[in-house]
C-alpha cells in the first residue's frame, strides 16, 4: 500500500499548493479541505448513501445481465470456429458505439428508470467478459481435455471439472474489470436519463455551481469503483486458492 499512498499524498500536496497560490479560481478548483468538508456532509446527512445505493443497484443488475450472456457466448466462441467467425466482427464493431449515443435509444425502448441504465451497463461490461472467457477457455491444455474425453467425460462434466476451473483465473480477471466498468455504465446512463444515482447527483451539483460537492461526488465514485474492484480481487484469490490454481 505504501507506493499508492505516497502517490496519493503527492497529488494532494500539489492540489493544495495550486489552490493556495490562487492561480485557479475556487469555483473551478476547490481546495482539498473544502472537498473533504463537502464529502463529510454528504456522508453525515445520508446524501451519498441514497445516491450510491441507486448506482450500485444499477451496476450490479447490469453486470449480472452482461455475465449471463457473455460467459456462454465466450465459451461458444472458444469452442466453435464458425460461431467465432460469425460473431467476432460484430463484437469489434460494437466497441465503436459510444455509450452516450446508446442511452437515448434505450430510453425509447425501455422508458426511464432502472431498466435502460441496467441494459446500458450490461452492454458496457459485455465485451471484456466475452473476450476473457474465450481466451481463458482456449488456453486450457488440449492434452488435459483429450485425456478427460478418453476417460468418458461428457460436455457438462468437461465444463464443470476441467475447462471452467482451469480457465477461471482469466475469466475472473475479465469479470473484475467488467465490475468496475459497470459503474461507468451506470454513471453514463444517469447523466442522460435523469437525476438518479451519483451521476444525477453530479448533474445537480454542477447545476447549482457547487464545485466542492462535484469533487466530493467524484471521490465517492472512485471509492465505489475501488471497493468493487478489490472485492472482486479478494473473491478471485479465494476461488483460485480453493481450486488449487
Written overview of the protein:
With 245 residues, this protein is mainly alpha-helical. It has one domain: MetI-like fold. The chain is 84% helix and 0% strand. The chain has helices spanning 2-20, 32-44, 47-79, 81-94, 99-110, 114-138, 142-150, 155-193, 197-207, 211-242. Helix 3 packs parallel to helix 6. It is elongated. The two termini are 25 Å apart. The model has no long low-confidence stretch (mean pLDDT 84).
Q: What are the main properties of this structure?
A:
mainly alpha, MetI-like fold, 10 helices
List the helices and strands and how they pair.
Layout (H helix, E strand, L loop, with lengths): L1 H19 L11 H13 L2 H33 L1 H14 L4 H12 L3 H25 L3 H9 L4 H39 L3 H11 L3 H32 L3
Helix pairs in contact: 2-10, 3-4, 3-6, 3-8, 3-9, 5-6, 5-8, 6-8, 8-9, 8-10, 9-10
Amino acid at each position: 500500500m505504501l507506493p499508492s499512498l505516497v502517490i496519493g499524498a503527492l497529488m494532494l500536496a500539489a492540489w493544495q499548493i495550486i489552490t493556495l497560490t490562487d492561480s485557479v479560481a475556487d469555483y473551478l478548483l476547490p481546495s482539498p479541505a473544502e472537498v473533504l468538508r463537502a464529502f463529510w456532509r454528504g456522508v453525515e446527512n445520508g446524501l451519498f448513501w441514497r445516491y450510491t445505493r441507486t448506482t450500485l443497484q444499477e451496476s450490479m443488475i447490469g453486470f449480472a445481465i452482461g455475465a449471463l450472456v457473455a460467459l456462454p457466448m465466450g465459451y461458444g466462441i472458444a469452442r466453435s470456429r464458425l460461431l467465432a467467425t460469425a460473431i467476432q466482427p460484430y463484437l469489434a464493431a460494437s466497441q465503436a458505439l459510444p455509450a452516450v449515443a446508446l442511452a437515448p435509444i434505450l430510453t425509447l425502448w425501455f422508458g426511464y428508470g432502472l431498466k435502460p441504465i441496467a441494459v446500458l451497463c450490461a452492454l458496457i461490461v459485455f465485451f471484456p467478459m466475452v473476450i476473457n472467457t474465450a481466451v481463458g477457455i482456449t488456453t486450457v491444455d488440449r492434452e488435459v481435455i483429450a485425456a478427460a474425453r478418453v476417460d468418458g467425460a461428457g460436455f457438462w462434466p468437461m465444463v464443470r471439472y476441467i475447462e471452467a476451473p482451469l480457465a477461471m483465473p482469466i475469466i475472473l480477471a475479465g469479470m473484475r474489470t467488467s465490475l468496475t466498468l459497470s459503474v461507468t455504465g451506470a454513471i453514463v446512463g444517469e447523466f442522460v436519463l435523469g437525476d438518479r444515482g451519483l451521476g444525477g447527483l453530479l448533474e445537480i451539483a454542477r447545476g447549482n455551481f457547487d464545485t466542492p460537492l462535484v469533487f466530493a461526488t467524484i471521490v465517492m465514485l472512485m471509492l465505489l469503483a475501488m471497493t468493487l474492484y478489490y472485492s472482486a480481487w479478494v473473491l478471485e484469490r479465494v476461488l483460485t486458492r480453493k481450486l488449487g490454481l
